[in-house]
Amino acid sequence: MGQWLDDGLNLIAGVGSWTYDGATGMATMDAAAAAIYGLPVQDGGWRGSANEALEAVPPEDRPLSGQLNGNTTPLADGTFYSVSAPFRVVREGEPPRWVRVHARTNTEQQRSWGYLVDVTELVMARARVKELEPLAYRARRMDVSSRLASPIAHDMANMLVPVTMAIEILGLSLPEDHPDHVIVSDAVAAAHAVAALGRQLVGVVRETPTFVDRDLASIAEGVARLLTRSLPPGVSLSVHTQPSVARVQISEGAFLQIVTNLVFNAADAVAEKGGRVELAVTDDGAELTLSVDDDGPGFPPEVLTKLEEGFFTTKPHGTGLGLIMSRSLSAEAGARLMIGRSSLGGARVSVTFPVATRNSSLREMMRVEGKGRTVFVLEGDEGITHVLSRALELAGFRVLRAPSATRWETIRRHDPEPVTLILASAVVGEEPAFKTTLHDGFGGDPPVLWVGPDAPPIEGPRVRWLRTPFVLAELYDAVARFLAAG
User: pTM for the whole thing?
Assistant: First the structure.
């Protein structure tokens, strides 16, 4: 049985047999074992002093090669079986290999024999597993966080709609020269960022990057004004920008999120003693660069290698997600996020966006002309109903509204005017009569713009989906596309 096992092992790559005579200090190896040690082979094997073989083992590993752990009770034939810990064997001009010794020992005869196994791949795999364990742990934490965040974000998405749109409608009602116009504009910018974040949380996905024709410098200035009011005492924020009307492949919400994360990270770095944070947007004609500098302690070298890890943070109560989310959003937009030393003495984080083309003027927020056409708002939430209705009325639509499908039927009996579009929400969509009412009322082809965080429960060639949360421009855009499609 033992000889059959040894013969079988000799056929396996990386396994070879050996013998050792304790009385003479001489050892033998078959060709496979000799190849592992890099020893010359003659007559199908190698024979020589055991010390000669040990020369291929680094001095610090030699105790491991002779440290055999096995049974203390002899086997039936009086021998003992043991196995060594993995140790390195270094052959000239080659990377180290890891080897493990399996031995049978006859103490009376001072003889040992057994086989060598090249376990390099196993040792490397175990090292890789150990290296990946922290990443797997962080991945599990992020998965749990996503599962917890999604239902919360689902409700947050619905609550955001009346808040965001109310701010925007208020802004539309103010003349450009009104003293409060800047404050409202900044609030609208913040609402856009929150809406974008809400969409990411609900779907646990990123928004698809699109080319945005906006003055990103102005956007950065607006969010800086908002953030200034939230900075810790003793922290100053200055902004240096140059007007740049460029097509950059990033959503406005993602850009705002990057600016917010980087500015708050810099402010936190100098908060303890107070300090300066500088936000800049520069345009060299081919690239647009957003940079945030501070005069804090900067990033120590040992921290720089860990900054791409989720949940790594140097803050007592931080999560470590701000920078990694900014890096992810930047990468999705084809931008480069770089970390270095600031001329102020602290840290500098910059994001460089490639510029596609340039326009001569800013593109205004899309508007749609209602021309007196009737839109029916089917929404159970009074706050959402009010802002949707007001936004559509400002665009020139005639708006009817109902809190339920049953109420819809009553209103339609008194107002039979043709309905161009129905805005329906998830709240009303849960009613049993919802599908029947719309199907029968429009001959099986209802013109529905479904408003909600989840996909519409009805199908049809004229059914569209506007995912919440959304902002005013997205509502007008969705309605315009709907009308254009007929």
Answer: 0.45
